[in-house]
Amino acid sequence: MKSITTDNSKIAASNLMVFGLLLQLVLCPSTHAQELKKVRMGYPAFSLTFLTFFVAKDAGIYKKHGLDVDMVQLAGAVQTSALVAGEIDYLTGITSPLVAAARGLPFKGIMVTHEKTLFWIIARPDIRRMEDLIGKTIAVDRLATLQDLVAHDLVKRKGINPDQVTFIQTGSVSNSVQSLSQGSVAAALLSLPHNFVMTQKGYRELASALEFNQRSASGGIATREAKLKQDPAQVKAVIRATFEAMDFNRKEKPWMVNYIQNKWKLTLKVAEESYRTWLNGFTSDGKIPLKDLQEIYDTALASQLIPTAVPVSKVMDYTLLEEVLKERR
Q: Is residue 301 part of a domain?
């Protein structure tokens, strides 16, 4: 009897193990049907601008599409250097690689996840109006970037000559928040959710890019031209997964709010407000109107960030995106 019980226990344990393996195959068929492809994806800041890509990884969407994605934070010129060297496969902050492409580097923007500019000028509590910033400093992540252009543009739209304000770079949005908190700058250009976190603490919102409906390729995907030619299947898998993550973002509000709250350590109120605002900037088809992108380059040229005028067709390639869109119809 004793030996029969032992055998039955072994059989039960074996059956349980088999059931567990079968369950994994059912739930994650693509991850077991093929070996996951290693992919390194760079992002410039711990900001909600890149939330879609964090969700695609943490919700298992990339794995579902056969991708083992490693998210790597890179700032400034390191982004484009890493992409050139092949140390990074894709960049999600596409402004830097697009400007680099304008300077002759072999990069292409292939998808845009956010077409609205999600930046705010947040000032110390004692700064009540934009005019109060004359002769003072505004912190941006880096000079000669999208953030710098937006900061200059917002100041100008509020009736102040940008030359009357000093813009300094801090290296990251976290450093900008710290500089503002310590009072070493009068204001800072902040992204989600940092703008809401600071206003909750009594800091003042002086300007918002949403107020002027500014459009830009603030979030998206860029890669090397060689990647498009040598591994189009992987590129399309990345695009498919990103679209699925965008769909997930829209449909799963409770999950998303909880994720934002935990990942950025926010109050529920700030997480909900951040999520609601963030959804406003989504593209519907992964593209930005080329005329809007052209305006960005024209502004960059006027600010002497790029040496020559650049036709957008030279820096954007929607070919593989269009193929994925046909699959989704």
A: yes
Which phi-psi region, left, alpha or beta, contains residue 183 (left: φ > 0; alpha: ψ -120 to 50)?
left
**Spatial contact of 11 and 42, defined as CB atoms under 8 Å apart:** no
Examine residue 21 and state whether it is found in any structural domain, yes or no. no
Q: What is the pLDDT of residues 171-207, one digit of tens each?
A: 889 999 999 999 999 999 999 999 999 999 999 999 9
Q: Residue written as tokens 């954007």?
A: 316
Classified as helix, coil or strand, 317 is coil
| CB contact set of 320 (below 8 Å; sequence gap of 6+) | 110, 228, 232, 235, 236, 239
Cα–Cα nearest to 157, from 207, 102, 122, 83? 207
DSSP per residue over 41-92, as a string? Answer: EEESSSSGGGHHHHHHHHTTHHHHTTEEEEEEE--THHHHHHHHHTS-SEES
pLDDT in tens, 234-247: 999 999 999 999 99
For residue 26, pLDDT beyond 70:
no
Contacts of 284 (CB under 8 A, 6+ apart): none
How many domains is the chain partitioned into structurally? 2
- Residue 290's domain is classified under what CATH number? 3.40.190.10
The two tokens of residue 14 are: 């074996």
What is this structure's pTM?
A: 0.83
Kindly list the strands in the beta sheet with 90-91, ordered across the sheet, starting from the edge strand earlier in the chain: 67-73, 37-43, 90-91, 215-224, 107-116
